[in-house]
């Protein structure tokens, strides 16, 4: 695996709101413009590619765009109580109660919506597509802070 492709496009992003258990300022509902960067490593295929860039960008967008402009709710959290109704989602966390329109919520199969776990979520989705490649995913909350997950 001497070859690597890197996608660092400003097009690969999503904006979303969320809240965390700690620290205090992160327990408040807030949002980020998340930028996603990916590296794939492997041997070259019969066309002398690790992967086609256009195909990789398209697959990556299909993973991140469903989260764009939603409230991210960690479905596997032990720290929040979630009650789903037909047209709304009620969430109780850190002694706060939120009620969101159902169409504004994106549930994630995660215990929290940290950048670290979002990077792993995106990595795992890419791994389903590119299971024989080494994958590194970076999720940035700002120009100076990012989380990385790689296999």
How would you characterize this protein structure?
The protein has a single domain (3-75, 104-150), classed as Tetrahydropterin Synthase, Chain A (2-Layer Sandwich). The chain has three helices and ten strands, in the order ββαβαβββββαββ. It has helices at residues 24-27, 53-64, 115-129, and strands at 3-7, 13-18, 30-42, 70-74, 80-84, 88-93, 96-101, 105-108, 134-140, 146-150.
Note the gap between the termini.
Answer: 13 Å
| Overall 3D form | elongated
**Strand segment tally:** 10
Q: What is the mean pLDDT?
A: 94
**CATH architecture title:** 2-Layer Sandwich
The biggest beta sheet is recorded as: 7 strands, mixed
CATH superfamily: 6-pyruvoyl tetrahydropterin synthase/QueD
- If you compute it from the alpha carbons, what radius of gyration comes out, rounded to the nearest whole angstrom? 17 Å
Order of helices and strands: EEHEHEEEEEHEE
Number of domains: 1
> What is the helix fraction of residues, given as a range?
10-25%
CATH topology: Tetrahydropterin Synthase, Chain A
List the total number of helices: 3
Features:
7-stranded mixed β-sheet, elongated, alpha+beta, 21% helix, Tetrahydropterin Synthase, Chain A, 151 residues, 3 helices
Write the topology of this structure.
Blueprint: E1 3-7, E2 13-18, H1 24-27, E3 30-42, H2 53-64, E4 70-74, E5 80-84, E6 88-93, E7 96-101, E8 105-108, H3 115-129, E9 134-140, E10 146-150
Parallel strand pairs: 2-4, 4-8
Antiparallel strand pairs: 1-3, 2-3, 3-9, 5-6, 6-7, 9-10
């Amino acid at each position: 695996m001497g070859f690597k492709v890197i996608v660092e496009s400003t097009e690969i992003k999503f904006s979303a709101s969320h809240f965390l258990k700690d620290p205090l300022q992160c327990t408040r509902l807030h949002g980020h413009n998340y930028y996603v960067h990916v590296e794939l490593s492997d041997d070259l295929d019969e066309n002398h590619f690790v992967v086609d860039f256009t195909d990789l960008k398209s697959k990556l967008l299909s993973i991140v765009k469903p989260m764009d402009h939603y409230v991210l709710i960690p479905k596997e959290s032990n720290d929040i109580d979630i009650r789903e109704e037909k047209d709304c989602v009620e969430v109780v966390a850190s002694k706060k109660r939120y009620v969101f329109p159902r169409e504004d919520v994106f549930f994630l199969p995660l215990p929290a919506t940290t950048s670290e776990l979002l990077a792993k979520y995106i990595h795992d989705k890419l791994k389903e597509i590119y299971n024989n490649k080494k994958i590194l995913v970076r999720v940035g909350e700002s120009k100076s802070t990012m989380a990385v997950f790689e296999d």
